[in-house]
């Protein structure tokens, strides 16, 4: 039967088992697919930003020397749009109409915004420049944002749209990112049937298949295989072979870790040196760790409440860190009501923030209360040595 | 040229233009695809949770009346697994071995955990029950979590894995959710070339195409069309026709809204009663709103910094609210350095939280500084009537 091992000890062991996943292989992905991915190396811009000297305003490109005694009238010799091509050099004593972003011609060293000018002649054949302009005014120099060959993004960055904007402005079409962790989710239990199947006597829907897969995705990893097997260790082995072929680097199972007679995860892992036992927590006491043909296997209890909590407590922190996601938020809140707990186990009661900002209990401690879990938005953590708490006591909570 | 309109006025106008998107059509999606979607109606469970009376522990199902004088020895008449089928009723004076989650047989009204028993007889033909058990102990009653026909999830809920667990445990395979807002992103500008194309003179990569699409997705909407057109209003019309055919409910354009001579978004929207003008902000002053064949069009300036900021300020709040995402976080921080700003415009300076928790400026006010935007993690908001701030002044910031 074995003693219950402390929550923190089990968490540390799972963390060590998953540490090997942290050294990620890399892959090139199109920028269009890179939102939320993590850069695997610094991203170098092959070009300067901006790539060429251009105008910051709609207006007129001039030589500052020509307008130092403004107001002064200059003939307008042409128009430069933001379009491909090289504009002709600007002759001294002339101005050229220029659009925002258009290349500033050789010879010009300042731009006069259109609102600081007046038209001269009916069809804008000349322009009256109202004020002097210093060299460089309203001119964006090539490389003034970034020099060619410099890093536009650092390594280890979780890509948001503004980062993609900078990489794309650098002319890149792809970026080297860390591969996401490839996870298989396998439900065990002869009582399980696929979602949407009418339930026979003693049957229940395989809720963990869809819910653990969603939890894996929410933690920034990718589900490469999902399966469901009855309580038959050969079937489970075959399922895990399939998961390995699908490239799984981590297998998460639910069910089959308890003290009963048909515990397939126990049957699989224990002969191979894995550990199946009890963690001093409620819900989620029965837990398993091990490996199958070199792939780490983390086994959770079969009921969906325990499975979801176990994932959040033991696996999500490692996966979120690898994916560059922040850890789950925690908060110390006052209890809205008194509660009792079991000595020697860390209790994770489902709760909900009340209107006055306290933590209320939702549905009690039973690990089968999955509707109550859905109605919760936090977990109330009751330490192992605490069996009673009064309303108003301050507790640690984990925000869901 | 027109007067600059206040930021808040433009924001309110865009919000009103997008308000019609809030009444979402609905669609049924598989639970496996429902992570992050919003329930369109309360989700009713067709079954009770749990669906049948079952055991909370591995142990022995008994009649509490038979163990009230424990310790007492009972013959073990069988074994009930968590598996399909109906167990035989329990005869008085007997016990049956039972697994966690297995159906509790008629006649039994309590479960004795295996750790509170001792074996009697070599091959477990009998069991010694060590303590009395009350009626209902370690028995999960059918419906004790949720009654059949009750709502397992409310309407308007953003689905996390624990919600999917509850819906799946209810035997549901699909859920009715709000459709995501369908957005088209169209870049305008003859100077633009596709990402990864070697740049000719005067050409720049179309950064907004990929970056605005990513921003749309990050705001919980879906990009149904992306396009890029040169400065030719007929091409733009054709592109928007394609966007409409793709089902776009909202078109976001970049470029073509300035005071220059080749402003295609202006050419498209103004004759149709749209507005193209200046908002009293920096960067991102030139803005446009209107409609094309009944589809709202929001026009941003062409440079990626202005486009990203404009999206965050004017469009993201509406899209995020529709998608059930929280608004961007704001924080009041001390400035790490003095700064100056332009009178009459609200300045959104790119900044970064310093190690000592203050707001430092990254890269200056130029709207072309896209690499600096990528290096930022907040926007420093300088009000319209402020032209100088000292280090240590407290400013509003928007966290990116």
From TrEMBL, chains A, B:
Belongs to the MoeA family. Catalyzes the insertion of molybdate into adenylated molybdopterin with the concomitant release of AMP. Keywords: Magnesium, Metal-binding, Molybdenum, Molybdenum cofactor biosynthesis, Transferase. InterPro entries: MoaB/Mog-like_dom_sf, MoaB/Mog_dom, MoeA-like, MoeA_C_domain_IV, MoeA_C_domain_IV_sf, MoeA_linker/N, MoeA_linker/N_sf. One of its GO terms (biological process) is Mo-molybdopterin cofactor biosynthetic process. Pathway: Cofactor biosynthesis; molybdopterin biosynthesis. It is an enzyme of class 2 (transferase). It catalyses: adenylyl-molybdopterin + molybdate = Mo-molybdopterin + AMP + H(+). One of its GO terms (molecular function) is metal ion binding. Its cofactor is Mg(2+). It holds the Pfam family MoeA_C. Residues 184-321 form the MoaB/Mog domain. Its EC number is 2.10.1.1. GO terms for cellular component: cytosol. This is Molybdopterin molybdenumtransferase. NCBIfam families: Glp_gephyrin, molyb_syn. It comes from the Bacteria.
């Amino acid at each position: 039967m074995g003693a219950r091992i402390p929550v923190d000890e089990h968490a540390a062991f799972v963390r060590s088992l998953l540490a090997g996943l942290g050294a990620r292989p890399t892959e090139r992905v199109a920028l269009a697919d890179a939102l939320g991915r993590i850069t695997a190396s610094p991203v170098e811009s092959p070009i300067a930003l901006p790539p060429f000297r251009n105008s910051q305003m709609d207006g007129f490109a001039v030589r500052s020397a020509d307008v130092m005694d403004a107001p002064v009238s200059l003939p307008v010799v042409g128009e430069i749009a933001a379009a491909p091509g090289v504009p002709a050099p600007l002759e001294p004593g002339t101005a050229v109409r220029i659009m925002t972003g258009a290349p500033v011609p050789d010879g010009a060293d300042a731009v006069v915004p259109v609102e600081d000018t007046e038209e001269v002649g009916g069809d804008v054949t000349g322009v009256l420049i109202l004020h002097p302009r210093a060299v460089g005014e309203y001119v964006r120099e090539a490389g003034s944002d970034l020099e060619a060959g410099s890093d536009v993004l650092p390594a280890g960055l979780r890509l948001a749209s503004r980062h993609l904007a900078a990489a794309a402005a650098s002319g890149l079409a792809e970026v080297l990112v860390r591969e996401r962790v490839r996870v298989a989710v396998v439900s065990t239990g002869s009582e399980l049937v696929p979602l949407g199947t009418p339930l026979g006597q003693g049957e229940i829907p395989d809720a963990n298949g869809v819910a653990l897969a969603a939890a894996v995705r929410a933690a920034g990893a990718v589900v490469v295989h999902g399966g469901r097997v009855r309580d038959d260790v050969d079937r489970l082995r075959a399922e895990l072979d399939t998961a390995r072929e699908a490239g799984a680097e981590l297998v998460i199972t639910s069910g089959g870790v308890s003290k009963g007679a048909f515990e397939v995860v126990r049957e699989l892992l224990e002969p191979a040196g894995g550990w199946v036992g009890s963690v001093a927590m409620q819900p989620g006491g029965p837990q398993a760790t091990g490996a199958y043909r070199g792939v780490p296997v983390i086994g959770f209890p079969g009921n969906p409440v325990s499975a979801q909590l176990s994932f959040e407590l033991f696996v999500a922190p490692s996966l979120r860190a690898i994916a560059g996601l922040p850890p789950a938020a925690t908060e110390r809140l006052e209890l809205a009501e008194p509660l009792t707990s079991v000595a020697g186990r860390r209790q994770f009661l489902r709760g909900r923030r009340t209107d006055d900002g306290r933590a209320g209990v939702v549905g009690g401690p039973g690990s089968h209360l999955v509707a109550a879990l859905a109605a919760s938005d936090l977990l109330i953590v009751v330490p192992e040595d605490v069996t009673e708490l009064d309303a108003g006591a301050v507790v640690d909570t984990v925000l869901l």
